[in-house]
Amino acid sequence: MYPRGAVIKFAAAVYFLFYPAKRHECSWSEFFVPAFYTLNETTADVLPQTNKSATGSSLSGFNWVDQSPAIISRIHTGAPAVALTFDLCPRLSTNAFDNELFEFLLTERIPATIFISGGWLIRNSNAAERIKNSDGFEIANHGLQHRPASLHGRSRYRIKGTLDAHSLFHEIVSNEVLLEGFYHVRPKWYRSATACYEHDALSFIRAQGFLIAGYTLAGDSAAGRGVRFTHEILYNIKPGDIVLIHLNRPGTGTAAAVIPHVRRLKKNGFVFVRLSDCVYREGQLYY
After folding, report:
1. Total structural domains in the chain?
2. Using CA atoms, how far apart are residues 240 and 74, in angstroms rounded to an integer?
């Protein structure tokens, strides 16, 4: 077990020292991860060796994917079960937490899986404590710097990806250490920034012991498309869906759209499950 105070203070110091100036040059997580977490030969062996043409483009494994047998995007169930998953991505604001939506989940006892990035945790420690002291929520890994899972430093939706295998390793494992130190649980699930992955990165992430969470429906838009967009998406929820919603954007209408749909589903006999409430077997998730 890692001392929570020491982990948070050290990570915060590293964050503010290295992150603003070196965002595009290096991975500041390399300064944070403990020395005994290193990329060993066994782990490196799972990385396919991609061939590149003279123009530098990869001939295999270079494509971004959000659907793959390695990504769990829905639940196989005979029950009217739905998994609500919430992403907490880092923002410049220290008030990046939708209290209205979170309070609703607490009051209605709606279980959910929350994917937390290290950058968000460091800037929103009070909200992180609220999650810790509340029942019904599963903690999951959303990456230390909130970077798409790349082995080549490529960007996705204008968010710079991890630089290489070592950078991806630190993005995942450093946040694992941070979350375990704060919440005293070891996350089982990982979702990268943008929920997109270079194809070759998938086997590498699985080799770290994580299950990779995708989604069936994106219940809101990180780009802020508004309440109407969210209503239209959530109206189509079906049994077995894994729904992705952002919990870091208060005042954007997400709560106003999500709350009535959750009430509607609950009234119609739907049950809400965390990903850990399901059984993973042979590449599928069952409830």
Report:
1. 1
2. 6
The string of pLDDT tens digits covering residues 85-138 is 999 999 877 789 999 999 999 999 999 999 999 999 999 999 999 999 999 999
At residue 56, the 3 state secondary structure works out as coil
42 falls within a domain: no
DSSP 241: B
For the chain, the farthest-separated pair of C-alpha atoms sits apart, in whole angstroms, at 59
Q: How many whole angstroms separate alpha carbon 54 and alpha carbon 74? A: 39
220 within some domain:
yes
- Identify whether the C-beta of residue 71 lies closer than 8 Å to the C-beta of residue 284: no
- Put simply, whether the predicted model's pTM sits higher than 0.90 gets the answer no
Task: For residue 105, give the CATH number of its domain.
Answer: 3.20.20.370
DSSP conformational letter for 117: -
CA distances from 54 to 57, 60, 108 (A): 8, 14, 58
**Would you say 95 and 256 are in contact if contact means Cβ atoms under 8 Å apart?**
no
> Each residue of 225-256: pLDDT tens digit?
566 767 778 888 999 999 999 999 998 889 99
